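User: If you would, consider this record:
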Amino acid sequence: MTVQPTRAALTIDGRALSYLDFGGTGRPLVTLHGHLSEGASFTALAAALGPQWRVIAPDQRGHGDSDRAPEYTRAGYVADLLTLLDHLGIDRAVFLGHSLGAFNAFHLAGERPELVEALIIVDTAVDLPDHGTSPLAFVLDFPYTAATREELAASCGPLAAALGPLLRPLPDGSGWRLPFHPQDTVDSENLVHGDHWKQWLATDCPALLIHGLRSQVLPTEQAQAMCSRRPETTYRSLDTDHFVQQADPEGFATAVREFLASI
């Protein structure tokens, strides 16, 4: 099934927050991407879920078609989500988040539990040690803009193939830009480190934790603890690395669909 989303944007404090709305009359599912990604990464999931779910996939601040923001704190990301829900007239939704998006999802749930029907957390640790150097520091070697798409993609080294389709033309036609700013990305990633157990355990709505068994981020012991310590939390593993939805899109969609059917 091919799904053609509508792209729209709202203005928050003078900056654009862009989002994809896959439509349908079903219940709302808000999907939140990780760093180096964007809302369109959930297109295959939206197609797999069909009209039973209205998938809404924002480009979070500083990503995709959304403008850069002055800061990338959890409070800032959550405030954007609250404004988006108000803009769309949604008073309750399921929230799915991968990596950065997962932190934003369960922090939103802890702050405004009445808005969150259920959580789907994709391969994200709630206690992420700070080793002093961001694991995404390598992006600081990428130029933010270049004269041609080919030049910019080539400058991304091993990520050239993955980032090539996501590059954006500059508004004035003078060149191309990355779908994220390298310094913003490192700043944002540094702010997800730390202990988030309090926020994870603050709610008891139904939750699904999807764990990549070869994850670079979520140790198996912590994944099991996240499920055992929080009520109403289901564990599902897939034989993938951290990038679950790209590595096994069918298994990912099946896990999400089965969980949604249970709520």
